[in-house]
């Protein structure tokens, strides 16, 4: 299909011979533009999530210039538009509180302005799903241009990764194994260049998934941020989006259920972040595609972790790039993909990955040599995800076995319950804390409503008392999330969350908890009648948010198994185009 000039959406603003059309053209010319520059051409918005407080996106103003060159040379007209910048580490209480905010902003920017297509420029954890959710709801041609991962780094000859090693070294520092000067030195060493985390954290998980779903150019999400090829990729995005506008290649043509399942297969082979279990249902909900936690569990049983990156393995994103990146990985798992899925290239996924192969089987493993060797008594150990159900999580919970301790994946232990993150932090290093290696640490009121925003509190710290005994992992449970760069036997996203009265709210210190990964169950060994008695005493925690965005968020947000989107933003129902007058 090739659109005619009159069919360009921007023509509604610029082509009419009336006072409104006059004003639109006049105001463009006010900026020194000639009529010919923007009239009768695809007008491309570059949604740029750069900010000085988003180090992962520090280079995106430069990349926007490369995208502009590409758009201009392809006959379009580029306009750079700032969109909410969600620097994962800086934004408090959690960027997750603002993912839907960004999605709304992106959607409404597209709707309210004379844009024919958009390049979505970002990559830090929540930015990718936020931008894609907005573009999916607006449904004009959209291409995702990933920020790219930061460079590798080494410390004492060993690969060190953002997030993963911060955690490892913090544990060492907290028990005196690392000196203070060394600790301060690490601050400057561990993230040595702009770009997203160089481990297989949430950023690289989400950008790779979006490429596998067909919304980013082949190979683009594996390019290091600081590689010259990354700038050329941005230029290519500018070229490609103009063609996508003429071809009317909108998200709704790309984002089928099979495209989502391609994303899920990639996630599992990557050993990607548990956060994808929240973002994928949210993105699918915008496309009108049914995608559930069960779909993830089914795929996880079929596709083992093949990407040897932290936190499941021991390499970094730059190594993944050298080994062939995502196209090479997708080639490895092609039997699990819908190769006929249409992508942003105008070609199928199968055509995009044709001829790609792993050049390093240590990094991108063959199917018969996955990252974690599984034994017959714990086949789950090599999986990127397991979805649990039980009387503690009737609507589901998730765990990442490949980043957990296999011996703990079947475990019964006594609960030690904290009602808030602050309470937990104040108590966890108390030398008298009643805890041993069999204890199950529990944090509640950390879910979408309770957090609010479902912060990454789920990787509860190992009590210092246990670290000193050499214990590095125990079972932990919460209705929170965990950073994709982290590791440990952490059951996350317990749904429904405690703040809305999920069974987690009824748990008491001393209760026996049973985790059985093979059965995919998580239960508290307390009778139904006892739980019913406790429910009579339960009161929802008082919320201090009486106004503003957080209040809107708490009223609108869905539970983790549904993706934590807003009720009024879900669904593929079309919003009418705005009147021009
Ligand atoms: Fe931005 Fe990790 S903090 S990707
Ligand atoms: Mg992260």
From TrEMBL:
GO terms for molecular function: hydro-lyase activity; iron-sulfur cluster binding; metal ion binding. Keywords: Iron, Iron-sulfur, Lyase, Metal-binding. Residues 41-351 form the Dihydroxy-acid/6-phosphogluconate dehydratase N-terminal domain. Residues 371-564 form the Dihydroxy-acid/6-phosphogluconate dehydratase C-terminal domain. Pfam families: ILV_EDD_C, ILVD_EDD_N. It comes from the Bacteria. InterPro entries: Dihydro-acid_dehy_C, DiOHA_6PGluconate_deHydtase_CS, ILV_EDD_C, ILV_EDD_N, IlvD/EDD_N, Sugar_Degrad_Dehydratases. The keyword Glycoprotein does not apply. Belongs to the IlvD/Edd family. This is Dihydroxy-acid dehydratase.
């Amino acid at each position: 299909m090739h659109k005619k000039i009159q069919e360009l959406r921007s023509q509604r603003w610029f082509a009419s011979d009336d006072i409104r059309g006059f004003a639109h053209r006049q105001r463009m010319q006010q900026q020194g533009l000639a009529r010919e520059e923007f009239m009768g051409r695809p007008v491309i918005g570059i949604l740029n999530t750069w900010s000085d407080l988003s180090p992962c996106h520090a280079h995106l103003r430069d990349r926007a210039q490369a995208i502009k060159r590409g758009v201009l040379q392809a006959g379009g007209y580029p306009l750079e538009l700032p969109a909410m910048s969600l620097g994962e580490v800086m934004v408090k209480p959690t960027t997750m509180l603002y993912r839907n905010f960004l999605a709304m902003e992106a959607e409404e920017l597209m709707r309210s302005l004379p844009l024919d297509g958009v390049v979505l420029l970002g990559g830090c954890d929540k930015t990718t799903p936020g931008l894609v959710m907005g573009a999916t709801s607006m449904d004009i041609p959209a291409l995702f241009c990933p920020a790219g991962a930061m460079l590798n780094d080494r410390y004492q000859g060993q690969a060190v990764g953002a997030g993963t090693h911060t955690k490892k070294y913090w544990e060492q520092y907290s028990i005196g194994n690392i000196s203070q000067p060394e600790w301060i030195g690490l601050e400057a060493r561990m993230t040595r260049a702009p770009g997203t985390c160089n481990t297989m954290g949430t950023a690289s998980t989400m950008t790779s998934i979006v490429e596998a779903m067909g919304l980013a150019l082949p190979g683009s999400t594996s390019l290091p941020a600081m590689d010259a090829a990354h700038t050329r990729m941005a230029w290519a995005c500018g070229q490609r989006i103009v063609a996508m506008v003429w071809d009317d290649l909108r998200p709704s043509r790309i984002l089928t259920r099979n495209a989502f399942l391609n994303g899920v297969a990639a996630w599992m082979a990557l050993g990607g972040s548990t956060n994808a279990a929240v973002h994928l249902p949210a993105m699918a909900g915008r496309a009108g595609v049914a995608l559930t936690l069960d779909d993830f569990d089914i795929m996880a049983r079929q596709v083992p972790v093949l990407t040897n990156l932290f936190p499941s393995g021991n390499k970094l994103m730059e190594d993944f790039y050298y080994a062939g990146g995502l196209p090479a990985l997708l080639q490895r798992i092609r039997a699990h993909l819908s190769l006929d899925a249409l992508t942003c290239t105008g070609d199928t996924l199968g055509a995009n990955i044709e001829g790609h192969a792993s050049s390093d089987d240590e990094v991108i493993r063959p199917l018969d040599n996955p990252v974690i060797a599984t034994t017959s008594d714990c086949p789950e150990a090599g999986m990127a995800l397991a979805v649990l159900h039980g009387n503690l999580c009737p609507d589901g919970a998730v765990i990442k076995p490949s980043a957990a301790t296999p011996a703990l994946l079947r475990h019964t232990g006594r609960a030690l319950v904290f009602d808030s993150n602050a309470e937990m932090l104040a108590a966890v290093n108390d030398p008298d804390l009643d805890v041993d290696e069999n204890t199950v640490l529990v944090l509640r009121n950390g879910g979408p409503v309770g957090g609010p925003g479902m912060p990454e509190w789920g990787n509860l710290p190992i009590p210092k008392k246990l670290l000193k005994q050499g214990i590095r992992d125990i079972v932990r449970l919460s209705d929170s999330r965990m950073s994709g760069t982290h590791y440990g036997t952490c059951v996350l996203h317990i749904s429904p969350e405690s703040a809305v009265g999920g069974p987690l709210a009824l748990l008491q210190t001393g209760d026996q908890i049973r985790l059985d990964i093979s059965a995919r169950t998580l239960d508290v060994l307390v009778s139904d009648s006892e739980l019913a008695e406790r429910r009579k005493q339960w009161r929802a925690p008082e919320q201090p948010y009486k106004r503003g965005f957080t209040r809107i968020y708490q009223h609108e947000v869905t539970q983790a198994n549904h993706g934590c989107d807003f009720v009024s933003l879900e669904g593929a129902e079309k919003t009418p185009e705005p009147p021009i007058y």
